[in-house]
Amino acid sequence: MDLCTCDVLVVGGGGAGLRAAIAVAETHPKLRVAVISKVYPMRSHTVSAEGGAAAAIKAEDSLDAHAYDTISGGDWLSDQDAVEAFVREAPEEMLRLEHWGCPWTREPDGHIAVRPFGGMKIERTWFAADKTGFHLLHTLFQTTLKYDAIQRYDEWFVTKLLVEDGRCQGVVAIELTTGNIQAITAKALILCTGGCGKVFPFTTNANIKNGDGMALAYRAGAPLKDMEFVQYHPTGLPFTGILITEAARSEGGWLLNKDGYRYLQDYDLGKPTPKPVLRSMELGPRDRLSQCFVKEQEKGRTLEGPYGHYVHLDIRHLGEKLIDTKLPFVRELCLKYVGIDPVKEMIPVRPVVHYMMGGIHTDIHGATPLPGLYAAGEAACVSINGANRLGSNSLTEILVFGARAGQAAAGFAAEQPGASPALAAQAQDEYRRLEESFLRKSGGKERIATLRADMHQIMEESAGIYRTELVLKEAAGKLKRLQERFQDLSLDDNSYTFNTELTAALELSYMLDVGQSIIQSALERRESRGSHQRADYPQRDDERFLAHSLAYRAADGAPRIEYGPVTITRWPPGKRVYGR
Amino acid sequence: MPPTVALTVTRYRPERESEPTRQTYEIPYRKDWVVLDALNHVKDNLDGSLSFRWSCRMGVCGSCGMKVNGTPKLTCATFLSDYMPGPIRVEPLDYFPVVRDLVVDLTDFMRKLKQVKPWIIRKEEKAPAEGEYLQTPDQLDTYKQFSMCINCMLCYSACPIYGLEPSFIGPAAIALAQRYNMDSRDEGKAERLKILSEHDGIWQCTFVGECTKVCPKHVDPAGAIQQYKLTSATDWVKSLLLPWGTR
After folding, report:
1. Is A485 part of the annotated catalytic residue set?
2. pLDDT tens digit string along B114-136?
3. What is the ipTM of this complex?
4. Per the CB 3.0–4.6 Å rule, which of A127, A396, A526, B157 could disulfide with B72?
5. HSE-up (13 A, CA, CB side) for residue B149
6. In 3D, which of B83, B86, B82, B92 has the Cα closest to residue B50?
7. Nearest alpha-carbon partner for A406 in A40, A149, A171
């Protein structure tokens, strides 16, 4: 097998990965940096982000206010040193994007415009209409094209991390066009592979979000942190799970139950007012709003359609002009996928799996405990998001921590010797595994789609908005059996050219590992905090659980949970107060 | 009996077949389904060996461009109901080499995209600490439309010029060049003009306008090309009249 080599290898070509690659190219121009991605970079899921990216730049705002909103929004599970670094570096990163050409929406005088977002005391969300992620990703991708130092492996699928002499030194990957299985060695590696929403059946996430990087790191011995914290976004379209941005509410949209009543007022989120009030009602945090939906459903006050229960998001009173300038994508999506015009009709919405607060355990430089391995973006858990991420912090996070991880990985790579000679043998073993377990395998009777549907059902039943001990325990057993059934997989396709059945099988195996880590972490956190609500332990328990969970993969493949400290600098744990 | 529809799909597996063939699958018809849902139904339940690209399923990642009954479409935004009672024919995009089944090779576009320098070019860059470049909403509007391109390749597949002359730099790349040319922060127009005025640049376009018709994001590449022809013709005349430079 041939070995390709580079100095820093970035896995994933979304916002975090591209920002990391630019950081390497700018800080260490002599290093050879490569981006390897299973899709062309502009297809990455950053493209789907809608509402905006937070950074304090207005005179009335402050870094402390951004930090406090983030920390209280995260129910005090955020590491406050990380949050402080994040809010401090956010404005500069956003300005850099502006200089690179991002078409941010402007004030009449030409300055950057900001909009409010959920859980924020002051408006600080920069936006490019309601296609912020799309513009951010394309700006970053097009900017990377000017750096000749950045090499790309487009449509290469990573199957394994190579670890030798105690450090991560590269990957084995499949070039999809040809089916060639190849090792790429590197002195440092940055995983920017995004989240794993596809572990669940109903999600805003794209098809590619299977927790690839999380599973690769986990298998290589790095722990996954805070995996029990799964964000349900309160406003997804039934059936498709397409996201209706929080900006629809920040511009003044209302959530109404079947009686046309703004039900959030019944859940300690403030009093309804005609104009939006920050940190109140529809501008409460996502975890609380999604929980209110469940309560409302229990009271029989939601509507019922062919795809389950839903409520209404009403933006009609905002008027056509505002909708077309600030929420054009919302209108486009509703017209296309629901056949309704939100200028005249109410939008049916329900909570939908959106984002993983948890991910690969890193420090504030993006370094994992495994030397040479870094991570950034949704794949990573630094943690700034704690138990619940605030809307518009994730786009900023991929820039700030993408850049940090790029710089740190470059610094590490510059000091490393060449690749260990044993890597070739390891790569050969991986080649053999792919051949024997998939491409040349005969027999087997399980279909990918069946196993995936079973996984979806288990995850939805057990790791939804409210969880209990018994159901989680059962789910852990069921996932273990699903792992065994996976060994009996049968593939229709044994060709090498663009074999998407093979990649779907590998993605399913990543999701099963990640799913197990979510269930076990949720089972052992016997408290309720942020997005993790235990019906049997309804209170937050700082005494026992003001701690990050760390899921390690044990020798038998099952997750083993340990806990690590939360860094508190200036904001001691307090009560989350909204609407007052 | 629940309603069904015939889905005829182009198959090409270079390890098995020397020529593309067609295969028809009978799939359930559901009013909410897009063509991509039908393809996934085939892949999940009937034939796991069918290959196609997809990701966001909300019309923004640009992965799932294919021809549906002869017209380039994003299959995640094209409903079965518009083609009933069928049959529905799904083929790979025209004018690109087919890698396999419905997957086409985008290498040519990726090379052309880089050629037009789709990034902000400035004589002097300012540091982030100096703040943002001011840009009024009107200035933003002049290029905003061209910044909406999702690189889905439908316009190339619809462009008869690209079909005849693969060296043509093509609608999306020109629209993106124009996106930066029109951006008040950019100073790279002259550099891009050199590339676009060459023989495989804008002059090949005969303003057929098919690119604009198929664009799912209303980018109007044809408009960008015409706009650009006009400015570069003017610049060319100016360069004759004012040989010491036009800037």
Report:
1. no
2. 999 999 999 999 999 999 999 99
3. 0.96
4. B157
5. 29
6. B92
7. A149
- Enumerate the residues of chain A whose CB falls inside 8 A of the CB of residue B53: 39, 43, 500
Kindly report the nearest CA distance between residue A263 and chain B, in angstroms. Answer: 29
Query: CA A199 → CA A3, A65, A89, distances in Å?
Result: 33, 34, 32
Provide the whole-model pTM. Answer: 0.97
For residue A200, which amino acid is it? F
Of A110, A58, A97, whose CA–CA distance to B137 is shortest?
Answer: A110
Going by C-alpha positions, the residue among A542, A578, A537 that lies closest to residue A268 is: A578
Cβ–Cβ < 8 Å for A200, A256? no
Residues 6+ apart with CB under 8 A from A17: A10, A11, A35, A37, A41, A44, A190, A192, A193, A376, A377, A402
E-strand ranges in B20-109 read 21-28, 65-68, 71-74, 88-91, 98-100, 103-104
For A331, half-sphere exposure in the C-beta direction (CA atoms, 13 angstrom radius) is: 17
In angstroms, what separates the C-alpha of B213 from chain A's closest C-alpha? 17
The identity of residue B166, as a single letter, is P
With tokens 């892949």, the residue in question is B43
Q: Is A563 on the interface with B (CB under 8 A)?
A: no
Rounded Cα distance between B56 and A209, Å, is: 10
3-state secondary structure of A241: coil
Per the listing, tokens 């989240």 go with: A195
Facing residues of A114 across strands? A126
Reported as a single tens digit per residue, the pLDDT across B138-186 is 999 999 999 999 999 999 999 999 999 999 999 999 999 999 999 999 9
Domains in chain B, ordered, with CATH?
4-104 (3.10.20.30), 107-241 (1.10.1060.10)
**Chain B contact set for A154 (CB, 8 A):** 110
Name A84's Cβ contacts closer than 8 Å, sequence gap at least 6.
A63, A67, A569
Of A337, A335, A412, nearest to A372 by C-alpha is A412
**Rounded to whole angstroms, how far apart are CA atoms A349 and A248?**
12
